[in-house]
Amino acid sequence: MTGLAAAGRLLRRLLARRGAVLSLAFLALVGCAALFAGLLPLDPLRQSIADSLKPPSTEAWFGTDELGRDILARVVYGARTSLVTAFGAVFIAALIGVPVGLVAGFYGDWRDSVLMRCIDVLLALPNILFAMALIAVLGRSQGAALVAVGVAGIPSFARIARAQVMALRQLDFVTAVRGFGGGPGYIMFRTILPNALSPLVVQAIVLASIAILLEAALSFLGVGVPPPTPSWGEMLRTGKSYLYEAPTYAVLPGIVLTLTILSFDTIGRAMTALIDRDETDAVRETAGGRR
Amino acid sequence: MTRLSRRQFCMTGLALAGATPLAANWPAAAQQLKGGTLRVAVLTELANYDPQQLSTVNFHVIKNLYDSLIEYTPDGKPEPSLATAWTISPDKTSVNLTLRDGVTFHSGTPFKSDSVLATLQKGADPKRGKNVFSTMSIVKDWSAPDDRTVTINFKAPVPERQILDLLQFLLPIDPKGIDTVETVPAGTGPYTLVSRAVGQGLRLKANPKYWRPNQPVTQDLVFTVFTEDQAATAALESGAADIIYGGSSRSAVRLKGAGYQVFAGPGPLVQVFRINSTRGPFRNKSFRQAFNYLMDRQSILRVGYAGMGQEVALPWAPASPAFDAAYTKTYAYDLDKAKKLIAASGLSADEMKGWKLLVNGSDESSVSISQIAQGSLQKIGIPVELDIRQGAEYVSALLGGDFAATFGAVGNVQKFPSRVATNSIYRTSQNPVLKDPHPHPDYVAAIAKVDASTGSAAEVKAAYDNLNKVMVEEAFGIPTNSYDVGLIVASDKIGGVTLDMDNLLVARTIGFK
């Protein structure tokens, strides 16, 4: 079975789990809101100081912030910030991490040692500290936050890709491709990678949740996306100062952030469980065949 | 009935006469207050113990470790402190001080004229003088005919208020400790240092040899540093602190509503939209003048400072002799007028863009009010980005002039008008933002005119009016509002709070009811 077919089968089995379905539904809602925010009658930047710190009402479902801006509008547009950062970060991390892991695992010689020591250096640095240092160099912007979170995610992709290659490279189908004259590049990217896709997809989902949290943490610490661009972390940062006057200001964006991360984690965990079960079944099948 | 002998009667009378001026300065309620340990929550970490470094981070300790030569009452009247008398010469070119007898520094060294001379020497040193240095620019030299007398001579006739400001700004330092004053306090103040835990707080104890009778009221003074305003208010509400000093206006408003006492001193700061007129479109006078109308002062005051303060278009507190409320009305928020001035500037749309608004990311009020200004600019078609920097990075950019525009507060706005030039953006020479030669000679001349106006009240007022007019015309600093610094929020068991002219914390009169 090819990797893509396996992924399709995985998705079908995932939809059989209630928690995963709820999570997917929530993420679909957040994703649609982020994607079609421009079509909604919401303006996250329009200030109306006279209406500042209003509680939730029919005019402003989530209330208003200290500048009288609609918190719901900022949450919706903040979803765009968070998801763009998350997917961008995953893309950067996978784009660099996967080839690094493939090369290191496939050759297993000095290339493995050099690449893995570089990855170890990245792993040794706490993500948040590394991201803050990178933002200090690149300047405070959404692009900088995206790159910082993405670079921090490289080691996990590299490690998983390497482990998968090391497990797969000795198998018969890889030896067969090699025997038919397949070069290293072909074997790595066309033979091994499709078969290693499932754990990498799971890792992408897990990293997406980490990236959203990291982006929010950076904004909370005041080094993330600069205002007035809406960001959930920035809303938490400012909202905590108004906890007495307008508790919903921090609480509602906080709930959305929590649910988004929880949804990503739930899906990631469910997929991990399904993959683990597949592997256990495969081992049992192999053991049974031998017997 | 007990009969007093003539000798006893005379001695008692003399004692009462001597004590009256001191007792008059002491809040009546303080006489019934109890001592104990006063726990103060502060939001800033102390920088050092140098009384000539009058930055807000040091405000909570200076007046507790040191005394001024003279003090001001909250309504601006001078009163004796370490100087018991001062005589300004008729030509206003010198002042003669009589120093208090029987005062000792914390080290045990007697307070004499040599300490005032050493303090003047330090203040006049450009490297060591810190905030006092610019104030010393009027001073020519000084001398001490004896241990109890000091004479300060000025370069030219100086207005009386400016002389008094100088005396109030001078806090004598022990000559033996003057070289190490940043790390070891060397004052005559009501408290002495016991210990300090950097980043956490410090503990002071009552100076047993303090010269003011029955002061300090409390035996121990403990400062705890809180990094979050909410944490400080929680400490007060839970009874872990007796006072919050320097908390936010917003918390003060809330706590006042909850029954806590709030004290705001007469020395607020004024928030100023600082413009670097040596850069980009800000070289254009008409473009700068548009910002007089672009500041939504009402919103800035409401959002940034919970409405505590006053809208101002000039860098003066209401207590300043140059304060003129008419300017606030004349330069009220008006986008149409701003647009006209921008059109008159002749700048193209591209020329007006391309600059960033520097923001102090460590200060939530600054972030909020910068977004208000950003919103106003957006409305007239000038999109600007916020350049948010944290802590030292911001301060470095602010004081080094590495910005196009930024909000930054100025102090000394309740005293003699030319004292505004102690703030970096308003300096007339060696201005770190506008550099030398000063790009606004009319402003420099207006400050000089204020300094030289020692004649009639009409002459003085004309000098103030001229300075105000020049400030809004040159428009390199656009004041928006005054706001309270050093706000004191206290539980109801606290009494005897003394308001300081500079809003420094004066703990010596505070006690428990």
Tag the structure with descriptive keywords:
heterodimer, A: 291 residues, mainly alpha, 75% helix, elongated, B: 513 residues, alpha+beta, D-Maltodextrin-Binding Protein, domain 2, Dipeptide-binding Protein, domain 1, Dipeptide-binding Protein, domain 3, seven-stranded mixed β-sheet, six-stranded mixed β-sheet, 32% helix, disordered N terminus
Query: Structural class of the helices, strands and pairings of chain B?
Result: alpha+beta
Query: Rg of chain B to the nearest angstrom?
Result: 24 Å
First CA to last CA of chain B: what distance? 34 Å
Shape of chain B: globular
Largest sheet of chain B, described in full? Answer: 7 strands, mixed
CATH homologous superfamily label of the largest domain in chain B: Dipeptide-binding Protein, Domain 3
Overall geometry of chain A = elongated
* CATH architecture heading of the largest domain in chain B: Roll
Number of domains of chain B: 3
Mean pLDDT of chain A: 88
Number of strands of chain B: 21
Strand content of chain A: under 5%
**Order of adjacent strands in the largest pleated sheet of chain B:** 8-9-10-1-11-19-12
Number of distinct helices of chain A: 11
Using the coordinates above, name the CATH class of the largest domain in chain B: Alpha Beta
Mean pLDDT of chain B: 90
Structural class of chain A: mainly alpha
What this model shows, in words?
The complex is a heterodimer of chains A (291) and B (513). Chain A has 291 residues and is mainly α. Chain A has helices at 3-14, 18-35, 71-107, 110-124, 127-138, 142-168, 172-179, 184-195, 197-220, 232-239, 247-290. Chain A is elongated, with a radius of gyration of 22 Å. Chain A starts with a helix and ends with a helix. Chain B has 513 residues and is α+β, with helices and mostly antiparallel strands. Chain B has three domains: 11-65 and 189-267 and 484-513, Periplasmic binding protein-like II (D-Maltodextrin-Binding Protein, domain 2); 67-181, Dipeptide-binding Protein, Domain 1 (Dipeptide-binding Protein, domain 1); 269-483, Dipeptide-binding Protein, Domain 3 (Dipeptide-binding Protein, domain 3). Chain B has helices at 6-24, 59-65, 113-124, 160-169, 229-238, 249-257, 285-294, 297-305, 326-330, 335-345, 349-352, 364-379, 391-400, 441-452, 457-474; strands at residues 37-42, 70-72, 78-80, 83-88, 94-99, 139-146, 149-154, 191-197, 201-206, 220-225, 243-245, 261-263, 269-275, 310-311, 356-360, 385-389, 405-410, 477-483, 488-490, 494-495, 511-512. In chain B, helix 7 packs antiparallel against helix 10, helix 8 packs antiparallel against helix 12 and helix 14 (441-452) runs antiparallel to helix 15. The longest helix of chain B is centred in the first third of the chain and has 19 residues, at 6-24. In chain B, 48% of the residues are buried. The model of chain B is unreliable at 1-26 (pLDDT under 50). Classes of the chains: A mainly alpha (291), B alpha+beta (513). Chains A and B meet through loops of A and helix 8, helix 12 and strand 16 of B.
